Amino acid sequence: MDASELRGQLESIDTLPTIPSVLKGILKVIENPRVSLNEIGSFVATDPVLTSRVLKVVNSPIYGFSGRISSVSQALLLLGLNVVRGMLFGVSVFEIMEKSMVGLWGHSMGCAVTARIIAKKKGLEEPEEVSVAALLHDIGKVALSLKFPEEYEKILADAAARNVFIFEAEDAHYGLTHATAGAWIAQKWNFPKGLVEVIGYHHKPHLSKNLPVETAVVHLADILIRARGFGFPGDNHIPPVHPEAWKILDLSEDDIREILKEMDDSLMNSDDFLFQDE
Amino acid sequence: MPKVLISKLKPGMKLAKPVKNESGMILLGENTELSDSLIRRLENMNIENVSIIAEAQNEKSPEELLAELGQRFIKTENEPHMGLIKRLFEEHIRGMTP
What we know:
The structure holds two protein chains of two kinds.
Chain A: H1 3-11, H2 21-31, H3 37-45, H4 48-58, H5 72-79, H6 81-100, H7 104-121, H8 127-135, H9 139-147, H10 149-162, H11 166-174, H12 178-188, H13 193-200, H14 212-228, H15 243-249, H16 253-267, H17 270-273
Helix pairs in contact in A: 2-6, 3-5, 4-6, 5-6, 6-8, 6-9, 7-8, 7-14, 7-16, 8-13, 8-14, 9-10, 9-12, 10-11, 12-13, 14-15
Chain B: E1 3-5, E2 19-20, E3 26-28, H1 36-43, E4 49-51, H2 56-59, H3 62-73, H4 82-95
Antiparallel strand pairs in B: 1-4, 2-3
Helix pairs in contact in B: 3-4
């Protein structure tokens, strides 16, 4: 299968019979980049489970409002359209994430929390945008495992057996990795170019032209959350930090010490935003 | 707190939330330690799972955490900067209060 054929297949995952109709509805709402906050709000409000998840995530340490947001419309106003669309995308595919890879949601949430901490340390203006990119950075894994469930399971098993990274096993099989697949998905759902770029280059941060700092943040957040052993991204190894990303971020040892401490504080009550008490 | 299927319960686990019957009456309170006989009684009730206090994670000793950390870094600790990241994590684990 060549790349364009593969891309076509992955872009049609929303029509798969295995996708619950509720999710299809959400994906349709999110797909429209000009959907109004009101439309999103009233859609979320029709589904109590979705409402409760959205509130848990907006009150989680991914954002800086801990515990202060009590309504979806308030959340939408504070976070803005793109962050909300991305967050909703993550929250709604979470069940599929957990089915295809137990622990991928934990990894994604943990990465988002960590990315926000690093982004704030670097003084980035939109830490929410960075953490939403981190939340969705592995969306390509979800897409691949949805479209090719048995094949992808074999690829994961192959990665474990040969002791290689998932992206290496994916590359050997498809000639591309979940990062590229994720960028396609983000594009298909009309996410902003910056988000597409961060997802697409989270393993190759030096290739990011427009958002090198944001991409480097997500790249390092992925490494730190894996090192901490929080969640499970599908393999147990930590990919090496790209020297260029390291240089761009320019963090001192003390900076990293502080980041590790803040990660502990933020992840302490993670059961709630991992939806483990539902 | 993880929800555990009734069939997977083991003696010694503690309830994170009370178990209630259909009319909302509390049958077993929070923090109740499960015994064989309590588990058998739960099996006979019409519930699927109960919330259990997750202790396993906090119970890991620094040595265990360090060993796991070492495993995760095994492929890449000699790459640039990875040794530093690993060392900072090691210091962080040693500095944690149990």
